[in-house]
């Protein structure tokens, strides 16, 4: 039965490849920012309607949740997720299907994710007499912006009636060529928290620092001191990252400002250490800044949790992927300090978040995600939608 399903899925994926390349190009040309995916969601609903697939609209905002039932619907339950939102980036690919929405681009491949999920839906709907269980297809909004569409969909009751046995998500990966996928068990992507810091001092003339409390000097000490959180307080075998990426000291060559604002990110792979680190950062900032005569406001905005790939689900997913693609085409990837709100799903449902190779063999399409020239080798569409379908139903 597995061999039959693999052959049928591969045949349909090949048959529909050009259709879904065009779907991907349409979505790519009409990107929408997080929490604004009105037309994208409408496009998804229109496609599902045309295939006779039932769905619920506006789950957690513009989310669409479709259901496809095979034989014995209660025998097993699997969920697949694809995100729909784009980024505030001006596209510079020059392709004919380049973004028509100025300053907005599908630079993270969510157009591919949505397309592959639609493809898997169509394929499995046509083959529903040949597989067992119920498939839930989650078209998710707002992955790119806190608090994350996944968390909102869950709060809106996504799995309140029945939780699936497992949940899978596929994400583009330009560091791998088309034909390969990467799957990593355990903690795969980091938690991600935003830091907002204001150091208050006393402004004054740059030539009379003794009459001021210089928040620029204090902030510079604080930036360096905060690295102690990573270098001396965290477990060396648990990766952590603390980056201050924005500093505004609005003085002048001869003006000491009254305040300095800073923004940054803190990321790690241990949820307990994560909470401890927040308190240590705040305490360190308060002690240092006040010791130098200033005051500080330090706000931590908790972001996405750690993406945790359930070892059992991931092992099964790997075996299925090896069956579909060949053992040599499935690799283990290193952990990444980037973040993903699929983490919220993986906290409530055993999950596997895996990566789809999208680079051409000749070296094209290797620009990183979030780059204005990011694009994919479109052969990835056929592979991505077929693999997703097979991973959902193979037992």
CATH topology of the largest domain: Aminopeptidase
Succession of helices and strands? HHEEEHEHEEEEEHHEEEHEEHEHEH
Count of domain modules: 2
Computed over alpha carbons, the radius of gyration is 24 Å
Q: Strands of the largest sheet, in order across it?
A: 1-2-4-3-5-16-6-15
User: Strand content of the residues, in percent?
Assistant: 15-25%
Provide structural commentary.
By secondary structure, the chain is of the alpha/beta class. It folds into 2 domains: 2-189 and 306-393, Aminopeptidase, CATH 3.40.630; 193-301, Alpha-Beta Plaits (2-Layer Sandwich), CATH 3.30.70.360. 36% of the residues lie in helices and 25% in strands. It contains 10 helices and 16 strands. The protein has helices at 2-29, 38-50, 110-126, 149-155, 215-226, 228-233, 271-291, 311-325, 342-348, 379-393, and strands at residues 54-59, 63-69, 77-83, 134-140, 166-177, 181-182, 186-189, 193-200, 204-205, 240-248, 255-256, 259-268, 295-301, 307-309, 330-331, 351-359. The strands form 4 sheets. Strands 1-2-4-3-5-16-6-15 form an 8-stranded mixed β-sheet, with helices on both faces. It has a 4-stranded antiparallel β-sheet with strand order 10-12-8-13. A two-stranded antiparallel ribbon has the order 7-14. A hairpin with a 3-residue loop joins β1 (54-59) and β2 (63-69).
């Amino acid at each position: 039965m597995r061999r039959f399903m693999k052959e049928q899925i591969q045949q349909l994926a090949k048959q529909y490849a050009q259709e879904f390349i065009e779907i991907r190009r349409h979505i790519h040309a009409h990107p929408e920012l997080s929490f604004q995916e009105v037309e994208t969601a409408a496009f998804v609903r229109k496609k599902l309607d045309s295939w006779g697939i039932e769905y619920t609209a506006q789950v957690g905002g513009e989310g669409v949740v479709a259901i496809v039932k095979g034989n014995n619907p209660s025998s097993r339950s699997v969920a697949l997720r694809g995100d729909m939102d784009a980024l505030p980036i001006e596209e510079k690919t020059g392709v004919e299907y380049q973004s028509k929405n100025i300053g907005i681009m599908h630079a993270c491949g969510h157009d591919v994710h949505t397309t592959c999920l639609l493809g898997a839906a169509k394929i499995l709907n046509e083959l529903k007499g040949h597989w067992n269980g119920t498939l839930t297809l989650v078209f998710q909004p707002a992955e790119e912006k806190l608090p994350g569409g996944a968390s909102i969909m869950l709060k809106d009751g996504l799995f309140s009636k029945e939780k699936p046995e497992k949940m899978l998500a596929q994400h583009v990966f330009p560091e791998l060529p088309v034909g390969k996928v990467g799957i990593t068990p355990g903690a795969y992507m980091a938690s991600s928290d935003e830091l907002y810091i204001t150091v208050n001092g006393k402004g004054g003339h740059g030539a009379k620092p003794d009459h001021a409390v210089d928040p620029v000097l204090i902030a510079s000490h604080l930036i360096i001191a905060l690295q102690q959180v990573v270098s001396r307080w965290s477990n060396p075998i648990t990766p952590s990252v603390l980056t201050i990426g924005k500093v505004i000291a609005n003085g002048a060559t001869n003006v000491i400002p009254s305040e300095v604002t800073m923004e940054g990110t803190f990321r790690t792979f241990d949820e307990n250490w994560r909470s401890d680190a927040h308190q240590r950062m705040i305490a360190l900032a308060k002690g240092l800044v006040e010791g130098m005569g200033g005051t500080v406001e330090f706000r931590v905005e908790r972001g996405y949790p750690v993406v945790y790939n359930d070892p059992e689900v991931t092992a099964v997913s790997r075996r299925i992927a090896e069956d579909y693609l060949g053992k040599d085409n499935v690799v283990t990837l290193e952990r990444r300090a980037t973040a993903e709100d699929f983490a919220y799903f993986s906290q409530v449902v055993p999950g596997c978040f895996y990566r789809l190779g999208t680079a051409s063999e000749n070296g094209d399409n290797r620009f990183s995600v979030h780059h204005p020239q990011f694009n994919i080798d479109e052969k990835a569409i056929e592979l991505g939608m077929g693999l997703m379908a097979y991973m959902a139903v193979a037992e």
